[in-house]
Recover the amino acids of this structure.
């Protein structure tokens, strides 16, 4: 009994250490001929940013260990870790997660000369975080079921009886909630509540994730869904041809909100010159171009143009809501709960 | 063991009374608490009734292929509940809401009760049943007066695990869009970045968990679980099902179809799609090895923790041991995100150099899942007749020698069951792994999470398949018949 237990323990330790070695051996060799190493917490998915960061490692020789997780969970982990956090940088999915870490005192002011290439509206207060890429709220529609003439100009039209039972949303998704916050701040609390109630009464179908909304549109289960602009591309990559297509609301519409994913540097990272190198690299024109080409997200620097087929960012002023105001999420959640959508 | 609950109490106190008052005065909080209570309560009742009936059908009737049915009824344990929910959503997007969650959580926790019931019924001495029959009892009378009193403790303990699991589940509940307290805890972290509100909500969950555990403790009778009679134990005659055979087969098939067949089919189709695009087998193998290695190491450590607690409760009716057992159990009802964060704090404070190393991760698993083994270890120790230990003592062995030479060999199979249960739980675990794993370590569960976060569902399928196949091994071992000194699950 004891002997078998010991054997099992030995086998287990061997297996884990083997797996561990296999994971780190490549990075160890990379670290030898580089001037340093970084640890990054990433709330962005490995499928999106993994290849980018690998290019950074080959180009600079700086080894980046990435810990992937949910943006908000990682923010909570950073706040619990405090000064002892092993991370140098945090790449988050949205401004809310970045702001919460900054409020907890774990974000340092970024070097102004590096982040000044990014417009002020995509930077946090006192440069505590900076946007790296942008995404736009838009809709996907099934091209067999919705004619181009029928496409909505404003998100508010979707409460119209004409769209009864045809629309899908993902009310627990952070991007949708950011849009509702923008709607509240631009149209007013009452109008936002009325619209949400009307949308629900109009038979809007609820999904957990944006990707499921896009899938449902493609399957013809719904005709139109509110999502972010890049989801349909991921589906096209997987399936080739899709019935789901991107559509955009008019400029100025709350339905055209632009939100960012961005990075901050922790107090630990601020002492490491490599963190600055990575920040510069992320905001360089060539990396921004890669973000456009590979992730099909919006660049945050003026010298790089938007992905083809997408509206130019400067022509989509959006609802005129500052990203920092989108942190007013608790009120949005209360509203969504009141209406019965979450 | 008390780490997650201690962490919650500290966070709640830091949040201050006004925060507590605000959350407690919100009608929404109580609505969510009611949802959690009703959902987990219904899951508990369902798995208790269906699980006991299933166990009885498999062991006491002339059902065809009882071995096969036992394995099939146990296998849904190998499929994580979020995978069951996800695959059903792939079949029909209308599969959402309260009843969908009830169904998914019920089929994925039903095996706990099935295993417990069959284990007891198998070892029940035919003599007791025969005596009851001679006294004029019919099938129902025998069940009520002989079989149920024996299996009650084990079956209810299995139900307790199911209820606590339903309370703490996030993955399935979120996917199926049911509002529960656990989902609200996650929302508090993820949308409001509010650790204090999350802690208050989670502490309400702990209170509900305590209530459930207290209810369970009351059902524990004072029946002597150990068989003390002499003579050879034999199996009793099987009851002929007759015209009840068809309904019985339907009852047994339904949970298997919901929890195993449909998920397996959906995953299978997606794997075929994925193999067309090419699968990174090396990465898959690496993740699989890591999952198994972590599971084995964590399960061994969990057993090391639960043996003293089990001995203290079973042999010495120790109050400290009992408190330990209750805390371990209640922790099962705490959402994974809370448990993960609490271990982050404790790891940083007391074991800084070990933070985000594999050792801290294994320690975390053992803490979180020892409840699964404590129950089995305790109940199998309870079934070791104390008279055997006393005899060994009178023959001159010291307490340590008695434990090593008498108690442990007799309780051995129970310890093995505890090991398998923890191993299974670790392989399917996600939130604690995400918080505590060494940076860049990948397990099957984390890879599955990475792939399903975005659209590439077919890329996720090979990982889901590998996870289910690997988890099927300990699950299968759990369903194998064991020797007379029978361990009882939970």
């Amino acid at each position: 009994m004891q002997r078998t237990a010991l054997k099992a323990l030995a086998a287990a330790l061997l297996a884990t250490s083997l797996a561990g070695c296999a994971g780190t051996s490549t990075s160890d060799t990379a670290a030898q001929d580089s001037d340093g190493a970084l640890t990054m917490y990433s709330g962005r998915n490995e499928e999106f940013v993994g290849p980018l960061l690998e290019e950074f490692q080959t180009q600079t020789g700086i080894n980046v260990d990435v810990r992937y997780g949910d943006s908000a969970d990682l923010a909570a982990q950073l706040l619990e870790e405090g000064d002892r956090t092993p991370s140098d940088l945090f790449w988050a999915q949205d401004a809310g997660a970045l702001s919460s870490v900054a409020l907890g005192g774990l974000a340092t002011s970024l070097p102004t000369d590096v982040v000044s290439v990014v417009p002020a509206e995509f930077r946090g207060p006192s440069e505590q975080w900076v946007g790296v890429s942008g995404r736009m709220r838009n809709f996907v529609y099934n091209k067999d079921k919705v004619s181009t003439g029928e496409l909505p100009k404003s998100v508010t039209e979707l409460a119209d009886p004409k769209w009864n039972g045809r629309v899908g949303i993902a009310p627990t998704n952070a991007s949708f909630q950011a849009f509702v916050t923008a709607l509240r701040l631009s149209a007013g609390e009452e109008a936002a509540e009325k619209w949400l109630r009307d949308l629900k009464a109009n038979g809007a179908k609820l999904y957990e994730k944006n990707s499921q909304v896009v899938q449902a549109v493609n399957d013809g289960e719904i005709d139109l869904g509110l999502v972010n602009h890049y989801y349909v591309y991921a589906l096209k990559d997987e399936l080739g041809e899709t019935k789901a297509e991107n559509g955009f609301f008019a400029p100025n519409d709350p339905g055209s909100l632009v939100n960012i994913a961005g990075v901050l540097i922790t107090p630990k990272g601020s002492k490491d010159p490599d963190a600055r190198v990575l920040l510069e690299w992320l905001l360089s024109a060539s990396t921004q171009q890669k973000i456009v080409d590979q992730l099909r997200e919006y660049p945050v620097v003026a010298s790089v143009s938007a992905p083809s087929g997408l509206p130019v960012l400067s022509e989509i002023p959006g609802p005129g809501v500052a990203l920092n105001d989108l942190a007013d999420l608790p009120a949005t959640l209360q509203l969504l709960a009141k209406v019965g959508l979450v | 063991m008390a780490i997650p609950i201690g962490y919650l109490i500290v966070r709640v106190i830091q949040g201050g009374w006004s925060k507590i008052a605000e959350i407690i005065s919100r009608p929404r909080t109580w609505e969510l608490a009611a949802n959690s209570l009703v959902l987990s309560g219904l899951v508990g009742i369902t798995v208790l009734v269906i699980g006991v009936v299933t166990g009885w059908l498999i062991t006491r009737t002339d059902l065809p292929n009882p071995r096969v049915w036992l394995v099939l009824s146990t296998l849904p344990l190998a499929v994580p509940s979020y995978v069951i929910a996800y695959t059903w959503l792939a079949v029909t997007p209308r599969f959402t809401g309260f009843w969908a969650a009830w169904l998914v959580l019920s089929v994925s926790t039903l095996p706990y009760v099935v295993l417990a019931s069959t284990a007891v019924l198998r070892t029940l001495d035919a003599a007791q049943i025969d005596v009851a029959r001679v006294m004029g009892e019919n099938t129902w009378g025998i069940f009520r007066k002989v079989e149920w009193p024996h299996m009650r403790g084990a079956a209810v303990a299995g139900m307790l695990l199911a209820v606590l699991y339903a309370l703490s589940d996030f993955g399935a509940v979120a996917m199926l869009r049911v509002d529960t307290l656990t989902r609200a805890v996650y929302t508090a972290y993820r949308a409001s970045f509010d650790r204090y509100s999350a802690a208050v909500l989670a502490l309400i969950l702990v209170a509900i968990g305590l209530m459930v555990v207290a209810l369970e403790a009351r059902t524990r009778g004072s029946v002597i679980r150990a068989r003390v009679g002499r003579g050879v134990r034999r199996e009793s005659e099987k009851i002929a099902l007759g015209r009840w055979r068809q309904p019985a087969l339907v009852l047994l098939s339904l949970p298997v179809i919901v929890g195993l067949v449909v998920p397996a089919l959906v995953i299978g189709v997606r794997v075929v799609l994925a193999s067309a695009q090419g699968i990174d087998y090396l990465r898959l193998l690496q993740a699989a090895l890591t999952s198994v290695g972590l599971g084995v190491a964590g399960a061994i450590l969990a057993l090391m923790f639960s043996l003293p607690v089990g001995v203290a409760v079973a042999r010495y009716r120790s109050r400290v041991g009992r408190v330990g057992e209750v805390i371990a159990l209640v922790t099962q009802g705490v959402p994974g995100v809370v448990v993960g964060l609490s271990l982050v704090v404790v790891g940083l404070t007391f074991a800084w150099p070990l933070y985000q190393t594999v050792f801290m991760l294994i320690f975390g698993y053992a803490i979180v899942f020892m409840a699964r083994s404590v129950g089995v270890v305790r109940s199998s120790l309870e079934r070791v007749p104390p008279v055997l230990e006393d005899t060994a003592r009178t023959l001159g062995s010291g307490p340590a020698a008695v434990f090593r030479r008498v108690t442990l060999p007799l309780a051995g199979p129970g310890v093995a069951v505890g090991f398998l249960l923890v191993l299974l739980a670790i392989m399917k675990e996600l939130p604690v792994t995400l918080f505590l794993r060494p940076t860049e370590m990948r397990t099957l569960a984390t890879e599955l999470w990475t792939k399903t976060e975005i659209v590439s569902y077919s890329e996720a399928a090979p990982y889901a398949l590998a996870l289910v196949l690997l988890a099927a091994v300990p699950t299968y071992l759990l369903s194998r018949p064991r020797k007379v000194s029978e361990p009882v699950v939970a």
Observations:
- The CA atoms of residues 116 and 489 of chain B lie 5 Å apart.
- Chain B touches chain A through 57 residues (CB under 8 Å).
- DSSP finds 21 helices and no strands in chain B.
